[in-house]
Structures are given as C-alpha cells and as structure tokens.
Write a structure and sequence with these properties.
two-stranded antiparallel sheet; binds zinc ion; Dehydroquinate synthase-like, alpha domain; Rossmann fold; 2 domains; 7-stranded mixed β-sheet; alpha/beta
Length: 390
Amino acid sequence: MHAPEPVTATWGFPTKVWFGAGRLGDLPAAVRQCGATRPLLVTDRGLATLPMVAEAVALLADAGLTCAVFAEVKPNPSGGNIDAGVAAFREGGHDLVIAFGGGSGLDAGKAIALMARQSRPIWDFEDIGDHWQRVDTSAPVPVIAIPTTAGTGSELGRSSIVTDEARRRKIVIFHPIMLPDLVIMDPELTTGLPRVLTAATGMDALAHGLEAYCSPVFHPMADGLAVQALRMIREFLPRAARDGNDLAARSQMLVASGMACVALQKGLGGMHALAHPLGAQYDAHHGMLNAVLMPYVVAHNMPVLKGRLADLARCLDLPRHTDAAVLDWVLSLREELDIPHALTGMGIDDTHAGEIVAAAVLDPCGFTNPIPLDQTNVAGIFGAAVAGRV
Ligand SMILES: [Zn+2]
C-alpha cells in the first residue's frame, strides 16, 4: 500500500485534530484556544506515574496555567470514578478537562466533563432512544483529548463506556457534545506501550472498523473510513507490535484508530455486545476481549455478508478475494500478535454464561449486528469462543 510519510497536520474532521510527533508541546496553546485557564487532567492510576503526565503538567505550569491531576480511574471506569472526578472538578474550580490516556482516561475525562454540569445521575444518559436529550447543554465543559494508545479512538467519539458496578453492566453514555473540542494526536506518546497492549488496543481499532463495515446501516461515509482504517491497520499493526519505536507505524495506527471510531457512528455488533458484559464481569481488557471474540462473530455473520467481505478482501489486498479470506486474515493476524485463541486463554469459562448472554442481547452495541442477536445465537457464539471452535 502506498502511504505518504506522516507529517505534522491540522484537521477539522470531525473535530479539531493537532497531529504530529512532539505536539504534546502545544498543550498550553490548546488550553488557551479553548478559553480555559484551570484545566483538570484526568487519567488512570498507571499512567499518572509515567513521565508523560509530569511533562504535560510542567508544560502547563511553565505557561502559567494551573493544572491538577485526577487519576482515580480504574481500567474499566466506574460510576464512582466519575462522581469522584466531578467532585474534584467542582472543588478545584476547573474550567476544562484534559482527557489523557487509553480508553480509561479518555472515557472518564469525557464523562466527567459531561457530568460536571448535570443534576441527574449519569445512568439517565444511557445511549437508549432519545435519553441523550435529557442532558443540560447550557454550560458545556470543554475537553481536550490526548490518546496514549492506538485503539479506542474515543478521542474522536461522542460517547463513554462507564461500568455500573451495582448492576455489573457496562453502560454507553452518549451525547454529541461529548465529542472533544480539540484532539492532540502525538504518536510519540504511544511508543512506550508494551507489545501485548499494542496488540490488544490495535485489535480494538480493527474491531471498530470491521463491525462498522459489517453493520447494515446505510452510511457510505462511515464505510469509507472503516475500509481505509482497516487497510492502515493491516499494514501497520504488525509493524507497531514488532517494533514499538517504529514512529511511522505508530503514527498510522493512531490515525487509523481515530478513523475507525468515527466509522462506528454506523454501529457495532456481536464482538462489542459480548465484550461489554465480559469486561464488566471479569474486569478484563476490552481490546483483548474483542480480539479473542472476533473470528467467532465474523464466522457467525458470514452467511449474510456474502460478497461484502469479499469486497473488503479486495480493498485489503488479501491473497484471495473471498469472504473467507477476511476470516483467515483475522485468524493469522491474531496468531502473529499472540492473542489467545479461546476465551479460556483469558481465564474465562462458561460459569456465568447465562448472565453474559442475557446482557449481550440487551447491549445496544449489538443492535446493528448483521444477523439480529438473540439468546440462542449469542449463546452459540459465546460457547464457540470458550471452546475455541471457529
Ligand atoms: Zn471497542
């Protein structure tokens, strides 16, 4: 594939994106451009100890901007984490959120900014029907998103996933104003990511692109984004996993993950419908769950995707232009990235099958699966993924 050398760029699609190695240095200018002076940087506990967070805070301090850090965010952010972040935001008199990190920091930061101005509980804004219209939009808190992984793409998304621990459910919180006001995509921030996380987060981006592409919703613009993201992931994910310091590969993956997330405006499918309850039950890595589930969901959907997957195989320049070639590619890529073949490889068996399947059928992300999901077929997919039977 011909891919131009990644350079510094400024885009307005779908929101302002400042792309380029070293652009974290532009953070103070970004805060000022959003009209703020007292940012709250939201990230997870693990990242908070890394030099990049200290560097961001120091950059802001040098520019005369007072920044506090809120890092009480679990890998799967909980409603309690969001409440604590809102309290920190209000007590500190902050006027902007810097959502910093992988999916955890980004989703938590976006949710904290949304909830900072609401009087209703967060669960009232679950992505069901027109619940998003309950949001008070009179005084939105601006958000600058800074991704440190190439996977979730949440920096270009309009929702956050928050775990309701009482109900052991992952809830999609959605509102158009949750799209960050400005994104700093600095691929240097992703170079330190360990191989296993590079693989798992990259496979999450692949899941977004593939599920969006397979969704039956009419949205050719999203299809275009999905296909191009998948082409970039096919070429650059193995490279990024082989050599974490390959800045060109990291750059392409960072943009591809954002594009795949924009594409998922078209909807997702069975991978995410199952990954959400499994993540809530086992506190397992979201991208890794999607990676393991992927071939079982593709195989299940294949009968209604005749020709469509073959088209994708052609766009991806796979060795054969057939529907099955896409499944073969997924299987070989997973093997190359050392992704477990079955859910048992992640310590997941069928102990909670009943609850998992029931929750997956209700998950709104599954509503756009190419074959409508029900108890029977989801139980079949889950059973195959536990047994490793494609
Ligand atoms: Zn995902």
